[in-house]
Amino acid sequence: MAEKTAKCKTLLDLEATDCRWPVGDPRQDGFHFCGAQQVLGRPYCIAHWQMSFVPGKSRQPSVTAALAAATALPAPAKRAA
Ligand SMILES: [Zn+2]
Q1: Domain for residue 60, yes or no?
Q2: Cα 60 to ligand 1 centre (Å)
Q3: 74 C-alpha to center of ligand 1: Å?
């Protein structure tokens, strides 16, 4: 019966490998952390880790573009005529 709420963890309940994604408002009752299994080396579970970086929003386009240009840019063809 208590298994349903087993994943809702407070800061004190969090263990080293628990997802630290905050759920709710810290100033209100019911605030807790996700508490699911972390992705190895990440503070969040797989779902929240993916949510933590929204593609196209928080990325650094300059780095991405530079990498793409460095690896995929064909040498400019200098064709006479
Ligand atoms: Zn999570």
Answers
A1: yes
A2: 24
A3: 41
Residue 57: inside a domain: yes
Q: Structural domain of residue 49, as residue ranges?
A: 2-70
Q: How far apart are CA 20 and CA 10, in angstroms?
A: 10
pLDDT category at 9 given cuts 50, 70, 90 is confident
**C-alpha 62 – ligand 1 centre gap (Å):** 29
pLDDT digits (tens, 9 = 90+) for 47-57: 999 988 876 55
Q: How remote is the CA of residue 13 from the centroid of ligand 1, in Å?
A: 14
Do 46 and 21 touch, CB atoms closer than 8 A?
A: no
Do the domain assignments include residue 76? no
Exposed (0-12), middle (13-18) or buried (19+): which is 36, by Cβ within 10 Å? middle
> pTM value?
0.55
| In-domain check, residue 75 | no
